[in-house]
Amino acid sequence: xxxxxxxxxxxxxxxxxxxxxxxxxxxxxxxxxxxxxxxxxxxxxxxxxxxxxxxxxxxxxxxxxxxxxxxxxxxxxxxxxxxxxxxxxxxxxxxxxxxxxxxxxxxxxxxxxxxxxxxxxxxxxxxxxxxxxxxxxxxxxxxxxxxxxxxxxxxxxxxxxxxxxxxxxxxxxxxxxxxxxxxxxxxxxxxxxxxxxxxxxxxxxxxxxxxxxxxxxxxxxxxxxxxxxxxxxxxxxxxxxxxxxxxxxxxxxxxxxxxxxxxxxxxxxxxxxxxxxxxxxxxxxxxxxxxxxxxxxxxxxxxxxxxxxxxxxxxxxxxxxxxxxxxxxxxxxxxxxxxxxxxxxxxxxxxxxxxxxxxxxxxxx
Length: 365
What we know:
Layout: E1 5-8, H1 12-22, E2 28-32, E3 45-49, H2 57-64, E4 73-75, E5 77-82, E6 87-91, E7 97-101, H3 109-119, E8 123-126, E9 136-137, E10 146-154, E11 160-165, E12 173-180, E13 183-190, H4 197-212, E14 218-227, E15 231-232, E16 242-243, H5 259-273, H6 279-300, H7 304-317, H8 320-328, H9 332-345, E17 357-359
Parallel strand pairs: 1-2, 1-9, 2-8, 5-11, 9-16
Antiparallel strand pairs: 3-7, 4-7, 5-6, 10-13, 10-14, 11-12, 12-13, 15-17
Helix pairs in contact: 1-3, 1-5, 5-6, 6-9
């Protein structure tokens, strides 16, 4: 009997890979050290970005053969707050993102993938360590290149999407408050000067309360998460083991929105296991967008308060999704800038991302 293919990690990318393979007749076992799934997430709102290309994110998931029967709320408007006291309303004709929930709760993306995995015949081993020689590594981030602190709570706040861009409060990051249907998520995220995260959270919270009023906070749960970022040379190591999602370093470096890229990498790995690895597609759909975010991250960290205020004003004057697509589209200029930034930012003392890493940013010391 042929040994089942073993996936280490029962999060987003591991389950997506398992679903795709099982549907093509592969016997798959997923090992998840947590019971109930959901990984490091706590049921709060997360973003499935929809502004890096013309194709709608849900349409892409259908094309990749992945389920879309999870709660995905289209978002077409937001309130941006800048560091100069400005408030800007942005909008788009088509959704610039979808809000999804990560974690094991009903309606979450993780729960939908688990349901489809079981239906396809995947064997789930919960609370179990994966074999050291598992065929697919989907164990998530290897080091904290970016961190976030979040509070998930119930509220009477009207449906709200608010983001604070103030480098004096969240240097190299941003703060956010999302409330949809009475469920709210507040957080701050940064990639440098992370020791200031707790103070940033307090200052951002005070700004949101001042702008949005005295809304209720009930059943609050606090948590944290981290993400890594490194450019992989491939999704398969020299021993033949596949790596998917953040286990391979796949992540957006501009805003830290990695869900769509992780699902894209799952399709690539599933095809690779089945003998259909597409190197050109990997470079076009994963590496090229990731390199573009290196250049954008460099610009993001140098905007300053006036620069962010100008960005918010520009976002309020035009279709926001169109603006996102235009800014994030890989171009020759962004490739050139990314090359220069990567040379200046390269980690030269060794990294902990694993052998797939061809570039990562110098750690903050």
